Amino acid sequence: MIRVLFVDDHEMVRIGVSAYLSAQPDIEVIAEADDGTVAVDLAFELRPDIILMDLVMKEMDGIEATKRIIEEWPEAKIIIVTSFLDDEKVYPALEAGATSYMLKTSKASEIANAIRSTYKGQSILEPEVAGKMMRKMRSKTEILPHEELTSREMEVLLLMTQGKTNQEIADELFIALKTVKVHVSNILAKLQVQDRTQAVIYAFKHSLVN
């Protein structure tokens, strides 16, 4: 049986979800709490397999409760179940140590499946939450200068590495000479180099060509 501690300050939510979960053959709701303070105490006392944690509660919110539990018990598996998708709730909750993040709009069966998956060591995120995290990770990742090049600019750069002149590049790509010059100018600016030679050196240095 997967032993669950359910934390939510809305009694009707606890009653409804707990009833569904308790009807599952592999899940047992061993305790409930209506605020973070009680949740922390119960977590340490009972050591449940899974903690379903609401975020907004009166005495202590779910983020602080999650943080305190993880600090003392790093192996705890906490699933946030909330109505909030705003950044000031999502990121702090996950950074505090929550394993999964679900919305209260989810079906009870989806929450049950999230419990099973989280118990097995997986991290379950609502699609919108997963999208937020990917965008945040991307924003933190350093973007290399050549990643700013368009596909056409990359084509021009690769032809530059072959020693082709602007006219030869124009002929090969069937574009105007003036257009090639614009592309070359953009390439130099984006790669933050002074001339074509430095651009070619950059291309080889970053393995853009064999």
Automatic annotation (TrEMBL):
Taxonomic lineage from the root: Bacteria, Bacillati, Bacillota, Bacilli, Bacillales
Modified residues (4-aspartylphosphate): D54
Domain Response regulatory: 3-119
InterPro entries recorded: CheY-like_superfamily, NreC/VraR/RcsB-like_REC, Sig_transdc_resp-reg_C-effctor, Sig_transdc_resp-reg_receiver, Tscrpt_reg_LuxR_C, WalR-like
Protein's recorded name: Transcriptional regulatory protein LiaR
Keywords, alphabetical: DNA-binding, Phosphoprotein, Transcription, Transcription regulation
Source superkingdom: Bacteria
Subcellular location: Cytoplasm
Coiled coil (UniProt feature): none
Residues of the HTH luxR-type domain: 142-207
Main location: cytoplasm
Pfam families tied to this protein: GerE, Response_reg
Organism: Sutcliffiella rhizosphaerae
